[in-house]
Design goal:
The complex is a heterodimer of chains A (about 280) and B (about 290).
Chain A lengths: L8 E9 L5 E10 L3 E6 L5 H9 L7 E3 L2 E4 L2 E2 L5 H10 L1 E4 L3 H4 L6 H12 L4 H14 L5 H4 L9 H13 L5 E5 L7 H17 L3 E6 L2 H7 L2 E6 L2 E7 L9 H8 L16 H10 L1
Parallel strand pairs in A: 3-9, 3-10, 7-8, 8-9
Antiparallel strand pairs in A: 1-2, 1-4, 1-5, 5-6, 10-11
Chain B lengths: L2 H8 L12 H17 L1 H4 L31 H37 L1 H16 L2 H12 L3 H12 L1 H15 L2 H8 L4 H37 L11 H9 L7 H28 L6
Classes of the chains: A alpha/beta (about 280), B mainly alpha (about 290).
Chain lengths: ~280, ~290
Amino acid sequence: MPTDSTPLVVADNLTISSAAGVALVKNISFTLGRERVALVGESGSGKSLTARSLMGLLSPALHLQASTLSVAGENALTLSESRWSQLRGSRLAMVMQDPKYALNPMRTIGWQVAEPLKLHARLSRAEIKEKVCEMLDAVGLPQPAQLMQRYPHQLSGGMGQRVMLAIALIADPQFLIADEPTSALDHAMRDQVLALIRRLVEQRNMGLLLISHDLQQVSEHCERVMVMYQGNILDTLPAANLPQATHPYTRTLWSCRPSKATQGKPLPTLDRAALEAYREHD
Amino acid sequence: MTQNLTDLELAAPRRRRRPRVTSLAIGGTLVAILLLAALFAPLLAPFDPNAQIISARLLPPSSAHWLGTDGFGRDLLSRVIYGSRPTLLLVSLILLLTIPVGMLVGICAGYLGGWTERVLMRITDIFLSLPNLVIALALVAMLGPGLLNGALALALTSWPPFARQARAETLALRRSDYLAAARMQGINGLRLMFGHILPLCLPSAVVRAALSLGGIILSAAGLGFLGMGVQPPTAEWGSMVAEGSKVIFDQWWVAAAPGGAILFASLAFNLTGDGLRDRLDTRNAN
């Protein structure tokens, strides 16, 4: 068991390449502890691939290489499939983008929330039910006892995402990966759900890796930001420093958010040639 | 935070259901009648189905014998009522054999993929290419006629459609987010196959079963007609039609009574299957 000081995830020179040999994630290194870290970047920059590799759920067609990849104190490079299954859910958990597609439509909410517990813990039926109730309550869902009998299609998107969060957290993992958990929700709900994730992660002293597009959100809810671009981690900085970012890419990302101040003016776009020049200069 | 959730859908939807005449309602009623007839045959049948009264042979329908009598003077109504028993027994035996086998093969093939899938699906294809009644006849000829052997023979050629359907659905599900999300909780292997994939494939399998029951009843009657099913003197619709066909031009009711029963049963299950398809899939609900 890693203690509080040891990092939960250590990745060193992590490279993910496709079957054709194209590197999709290039030689990235990072360490994640019990903190809230955001991974931001454009579509296709390799954020989700990186996250999936931490869960051991890369598509078999992809090839993973690293000098070190340790997850929750285990060497992820040599982990057997059955050991991975034990880790997932109990030590690591992931919340997916859209609850509409990620909850099994044929099973009740209660059954789905209880399943990780049945798998990872030895509890009696009554204890499981009680824990499920507590968990549903903790994610801010009203009337958990009735809710347990319901099916996913009877829930709204925000409730579905809360259920997903309950499923992810019920077996007390130490590390949570949230892959754009709010992109299927409307704006008001986004802040609620993110604040909830943040609160739960803090309460349980967990690590969080939040994958997001929304820099504003990230700056509010995370401590550290890693910026990915075309498979590289370009920049790592404390979230509070985002407005004063020094890296030109991060600066562009930050300044291209539409807001009241930019109304009527064209938003800055990314000068990719300048960025390439900057990276070569590095 | 909770207040904008409560008013959404948790306020239990009070739905007033008007009784509608659906195919499920009609089919279900017909199936229920069939089941009740089989269950309470001794109470419902006016005569002993096997009592032969030679003086009263081939009587047309009358107030004493509602459907007339057959060549041995047995009351046709009683025989039709008793005939529902072997038919339903055969049908349930076939279902018990085909659905589990078909689902198991299909889900394994779809989930495991690779060589397992190829081998399993080629075996399925072989069984699919066998002509239903001919193989059943061959098998019954080998094993000897009887209810159980008839069921076995018909089951042998009725499971492949279930396997193919289960495989197709599993394939579509394999890349779905539900299963990815389930894997993220550490759910794997058998638990994933039977906890998550099976319930998603089951509704369509049940519908398929109900729809194919009509055909199975016809095949079962066909076996009886050819003398390969339940042996006389037990009343069975197929063999009753066979007996009636000898006198079909002069005493049409002898064949028409069991024939009508076959039509009735087949229709009942087809309607039920149709209705179930609309109802059972929670994905289409609301």
